[in-house]
Design brief:
75% of the residues lie in helices and 0% in strands. It is mainly α.
Length: 180
């Protein structure tokens, strides 16, 4: 005794809304999945290319030496098959690349320099923190550095003046001591 097959409503066809959702799901492939597929495709391309070079390395040139035509035809067929598959893989990679670019077209691009972590010393960390702040804070810091530089120059000038006054007072006192 067998059970009758289940027949979905709508005359054996999925409902139109479900068809649209399936079509949409087929079109909206996750970009990360596309990148993984692209990575696998690149690995396949590298593998096929290595196999092609291996075949070419093992293949003897017909330089007057007798060779078996069947062996040569077999290797030539393998080489042509690898080249055809390589062409297919490159087309697949182009499709994946175009789809990824299409999916990422609306995203803001981040400069690659910001995505690469690197080791830095403490002074550059301080500079990076100040660079991350708003523009007025950076401007204020620059002004403070300029004022500090001017202040050091003025302090140096005052020190020279004080040294000159000290020497002058010393000479005056020496002259008065000699007089008395």
């Amino acid at each position: 005794m067998t059970t009758p097959p289940l027949v979905p409503p709508y005359g054996g066809q999925p409902p139109p809304l479900q068809q649209q959702q399936q079509a949409q799901a087929a079109r909206d492939v996750n970009t990360a999945s596309l990148c993984r597929i692209g990575q696998e495709t690149v690995q396949d391309i590298v593998l096929r290319t290595m196999e092609i070079f291996q075949l070419l390395r093992n293949m003897q040139l017909p330089n007057g030496v007798t060779y078996h035509p069947n062996t040569h035809q077999d290797r030539l067929g393998k080489l042509q098959e690898h080249l055809r598959m390589l062409s297919v893989l490159f087309r697949k990679l182009r499709l994946v690349y175009d789809k990824c670019n299409e999916n990422c077209a609306g995203l803001d691009s981040i400069p690659p320099e910001l995505l690469i972590p690197f080791v830095e010393d403490d002074s550059s960390k301080h500079e990076d923190r100040s660079a991350g702040q708003s523009r007025p804070a950076t401007e204020e810091r620059r002004e403070i550095l300029e004022v500090n530089k001017k202040l050091k120059q003025k302090n140096q000038q005052l020190k020279q003046i004080m040294d000159q006054l000290r020497n002058l007072i010393w000479e005056i006192n020496s002259m008065l001591a000699v007089r008395s």
